[in-house]
Every structure is written in structure tokens, then in C-alpha cells.
Amino acid sequence: MKERISFKITKQNVIIMVTLVLLNFFGNWLSGTLNLPWWLDTAGTMAASILMGPIAGMIVAIPSTLIPTLIHGQTIAYTLIGVSVALVVGFLFPKRHKEDLFGIVSVAILSAVISSAISVPLNSLYFDGYTGNIWGDALYDMLSDFISSDTFNIFLSQFFIDMPDRVICILLALVIADMTDIRIVRKKKKKGAMSAAAMPYLYRSCFIPAWDSCPCGGIWCRL
User: Fold this and answer.
1) Which residue, among 116, 114, 89, 117, has the nearest Cα to 173 in the 3D structure?
2) How far apart are CA 124 and CA 140, in angstroms?
3) What phi, psi does 126 have (nearest 5°)?
4) Which CATH architecture has domain 2-188?
5) What number of CA atoms fall less than 13 Å from residue 69's CA on the CB side?
6) Residues 172, 104: contact at Cβ < 8 Å?
7) Which of 115, 108, 85, 98 lies closest to 178, judged by CA?
8) Do residues 157 and 143 touch, judged by C-beta distance below 8 A?
9) Domain boundaries of the chain, sorted by first residue
10) Dihedral angle computed from the Cα positions of residues 14, 29, 81 and 156, in that order, rounded to the nearest 10 degrees
């Protein structure tokens, strides 16, 4: 648990988090531009949560959700959705069993259920039950013609968008996390190799001159 919560602020981590925020912005823009049936704005949040834990995920999620909502004149309460995604993935993602596809998808679906539940009162209060996505809105209108429960209709229309979106985003986040881990490991190995290669030169420059200046001519010093 402590390993998941602990988070170090380093230059490398800050660069990664800024990049992941930009990735969320791009996903949000792409979804709106192409009218996709997914949000695509939580892949960066999930990647941060997988790599650095839930705190880093929340740091990525808050600006990723806050800035677009302010631009579109929406309520900042929708930042709770991004925070919930960061917490669920940060605490429940099977980091030691990344090949466990069932566990990974289960975390994504749980995240979708929680975020859809959070969206129900927000959508009802601010958007008359609509999701803000044309695909989800169409489903809401269709359900409203047959089902009288507005709460159920809001939840189902939101979950219709959130569930596949979270699965897509967590798989994308897993790829990003693996690529980032591989790059970090290679960088560390490269530094280690450079240090090892420098040792013979350091050895010669530090000790050989001292031996040569020794009264014994370095004969006994080398033994």
C-alpha cells in the first residue's frame, strides 16, 4: 500500500506528468472533433496512476478535467470523475500481474461504474440528464421513451460511453507505462555502462601517477 501511495517529485516525473496531461487534452480534442462514442481523456491519468501511483494520477487528472470544463463553461465538479479514475487505477491496478487481462479490464469497468454513478447527479443537475456525447445523448433519448426512471436512464447512457472508453484507455495506458518503464531501464543501464567504462580511465589517472612517484618505483605498490 505504501509503495502505491508514495510519490517522488523529480524532474523526470514532472516531465512525464505534463506529457500525460497533454495526452488527455489530445484525447478530449480528438473525441470532440470526430464525434467518437468515447471520451479518450483518461489514458494519461491511468498511465500516471500505473507508473507513479494514485497521487500522481490525481495531479494529472485535475488539470486534464478542470481546464476543458472551464473552457466549455461547465462545472468544476466534473473533476471528481478524473480523480475517481486515478484512485481506482492507482490502488487496484494489478502492477505485479500486468499479463492479467481480466484483472486489468475489471479495474477499467469498475472505474466506469464509479464515474458513471458520479455523473448521474451532475448530468441531471447541469445538463437535464444528457451526457455531452452525441452517442450517449441518443441512447438517453431512446431510453426515456420507454423507461420512466430518469436516474436509470442517465446512468445507463453514461455507462454506455464510459465502459468502452475506460477499457480502451487502460489498455493504451498500459502500453504507455510499459514503454516508459523500458526507456527508464535502458537509460539507467546506459548510465551504468558509462560509469563502468570510465572506471579503468579513473583508475589509471588516480593510481598509476602515484605509483610512479613512489620511492620503490611502483614495484611494491602494484603488488
Assistant:
1) 89
2) 12
3) -105, -20
4) Orthogonal Bundle (1.10)
5) 18
6) no
7) 98
8) yes
9) 2-188
10) -150
Backbone angles phi, psi at 98, to 5 degrees: -65, -15
Neighbours of 20 (CB within 10 A): 28
Sign of torsion, CA 78 128 130 109?
positive
Residue 91 grid coordinates: 490502488
Contact 60, 45 (CB under 8 A): yes
Question: How many whole angstroms separate alpha carbon 112 and alpha carbon 127?
Answer: 19
User: Could you report the per-residue pLDDT of 104-130, keeping only the tens digit for each?
Assistant: 999 999 999 999 999 999 999 999 999
- Mean of pLDDT values over 51-76: 91
pTM of the model: 0.82
Mean pLDDT score of the chain, rounded to an integer? 85
Q: Around 219, how many Cα atoms within 13 Å sit in the side-chain half-sphere? A: 3
